[in-house]
Amino acid sequence: MAKNSHLILSERIEIEKALKDGANFKEIGERIEKDPSTVSKEIRNHFIVKDSGSRFNPCKHRTTCKHSRDICSKCQWSWRKECARCNQGCYKYCKDFEEQFCERHKHPPYVCNGCEKRNSCTLRRNLYDAKAAQKKYETVRSESRQGYAITPDELRRIDDLISPLVQQGQSVHHRLISTVLTQAEKEMLVIYNAAHKATPPKLEQKEVQTFQPEEVQQIRDCLELEPIKWRTITHMLLITGCRRGEVMGLKWDAVDWQNNQVKIDRALLYASDKGIYESSTKTGETRFIKLPIEIMRLLKLYQTWYLEQKLKNGDQWQETGYIFVRDNGEPMHPDSITQWLGNFSRRHNLPPVYPHKFRHTMASLLYFNGVDSVTISKRLGHAKVSTTTDIYSHLIKQADEKAADCIADLVLRKA
Q1: 158-188 pLDDT, tens digit each
Q2: What HEC string does 261-330 produce?
Q3: Longest Cα pair distance anywhere in the chain, in angstroms?
């Protein structure tokens, strides 16, 4: 069987038909004389996601939902008596919303073609469509083949056009141009690489977005009205400054109850071709983060709820060891945090809330309370202290100005 040869439209149509018939990858491969791995790759790379329709409502509580036109402040769909039956996307604003993902998507064939429940399913659907797959393939192929055949004369004209701009300090993708002209110089197509003689302007560092102390307190007050799981997750984001995936990757064996600290040595990530998977931290290093006693108590309270959930599920519970899990013990989708925080901020009329903003907020609070860059860098898990100082340069400057005023009040100014 051909393993890596490109598929054509007729073969993709045959794949779509075979999926509808319930054939596995081996059987499909035999039909089109391709290796099963080629079939698997084709389906995983080219399926489309459908998250709309008259039945679409992915909330796991949809069958037990008691809401009745109370999610949206002014519901225009008065003919709908129950919010669970509404297909206008109101579930996004429900505080009880938790998305349910189809288990079929985790395993071959990864798509809903051939599923008996496809027409009645209310969840997000993965569908393999032969014509859509062919169009996507042709687009990628076309983009990969685009380019220009440049003659020596054309290259000199490009050099005459770009060199003055580079010499004026304009960074026209400076490194790329420099690489091209370096090769041209080696081949004696240009006299010298003008990019080497230019000083590209420094990129303007955008200020990070943080919460003000009063906003942090407002968020914490609103969290008291939310479920214990989300309350704990949000506090962990704020107090540890961890990345979203690092919080999702926490396991119970990483909690040191005696020394009030957690070990950060992994992250939980998501990719369309892998699903939810575990990886190392961004820098590949392990760090230990001290937690205040209040957070340890909150974590203990959450553990009680966790064990109750485990008991309720019985044989249905999936033991993964992760701290933050779905109701059946399976790992949570990392995107669920971002989605929940967005809904949370809208419900309580808060400023935009997203995971990384808590990370920047923690760094800001530490800087303004006199903590040094080395300590903050270690807590954030940056590979180099310079990374921390570059990102938070404006905060360091503001903190230094505050320190100057403080020393002036203590030494130079009279009460």
Answers
A1: 666 555 555 444 555 666 677 777 777 777 7
A2: EEEECCEEEEECCCEEEEECCCCCCCEEEECCHHHHHHHHHHHHHHHHHHHHHHHHCCCCCECCECCCCC
A3: 90
For the stretch 144-154, pLDDT in tens is: 655 555 666 66
* Residue 38 CA: distances (Å) to CA of 10, 11, 23, 207: 15, 12, 15, 46
Task: Round to whole Å and give the CA distance between 97 and 16.
Answer: 33
Contact 69, 80 (CB under 8 A): yes
DSSP 335: H
Q: Which residue has the higher pLDDT, 143 or 47?
A: 47
Write down all domains in the chain, each with its CATH number in brackets. 9-58+99-142 (no CATH), 152-197 (no CATH), 213-362 (1.10.443.10)
Check: CB of residue 184 under 8 Å from CB of residue 319.
no
CB 19 within 8 A of CB 114: yes
3-state SS string over 73-102? CCCCCCCCCCHHHCCCCHHHHCCCCCECCC
pLDDT band at 103 (very low <50, low <70, confident <90, very high): confident
